[in-house]
Amino acid sequence: MMLLSAVLAVAPIPSNLGSAWAEFSRAPAARLTRTTVEVGTSGYDRQHAQLDFWLRRTVTRGIKQEEQIVWADTRTCARVRPLLASMRDIPVPKFAPIGSSKGPPVILDGIGYSLKAYSDDGMLTESTNIGTPLAEWIEAALKTLEPCWSSRVPQRTR
């Protein structure tokens, strides 16, 4: 596995939406492109007795780090809630020194995948590369959410 980190100067989230509690990203090593999806809670839907969530996708491209930001939420896209629920089913890797496992060799290029999210046990972070359950989940998540994105910023649930 390869650990990746990047600092992005992303536009702030509107204050009425609060902070993100999860973030996943995809960053091909050979390109100057990074896709980051932040997830936050936009309120409580009393009628359906459930939380509502917002997502913000930021695609950063090129040397100038130009950003394209789009949004989705559980009120306008039925795909969001099951996708977020599936996050709990991502297999978590076991910690092991390099070369001590029977897994695939360390990949020094490829695509970096990362997921940070709060859990019952605190903040969890996983960074990995191609061919892992996290990589598969992120690729499927990005594909699932593709029809949901809009330039409209979600509103807080009242």
Summary?
This protein has 158 residues and is mainly beta. The protein has helices at residues 80-86, 133-145; strands at 20-28, 33-45, 50-61, 66-73, 111-119, 122-128. The chain has a domain at 16-89 and 113-148.
Task: Describe what this molecule looks like in 3D.
This protein is mainly beta and 158 residues long. It contains two helices and six strands. It has helices spanning 80-86, 133-145, and strands spanning 20-28, 33-45, 50-61, 66-73, 111-119, 122-128. The radius of gyration is 16 Å and the shape is globular. It starts with 19 loop residues before the first strand and ends in a 13-residue tail after the last helix.
The helix count comes to 2
Class inferred from helices and paired strands:
mainly beta
End-to-end Cα distance, whole Å, is 43 Å
Mean pLDDT: 85
> What's the helical proportion of residues?
10-25%
Give the number of DSSP strands.
6
List low-pLDDT spans: 1-9
Largest beta sheet: strand ordering: 4-3-2-1-5-6
Strand content range? 35-45%
Largest sheet: 6 strands, antiparallel
The gross shape turns out to be: globular
Report the C-alpha radius of gyration, rounded: 16 Å
Topology pattern, helix = H, strand = E: EEEEHEEH
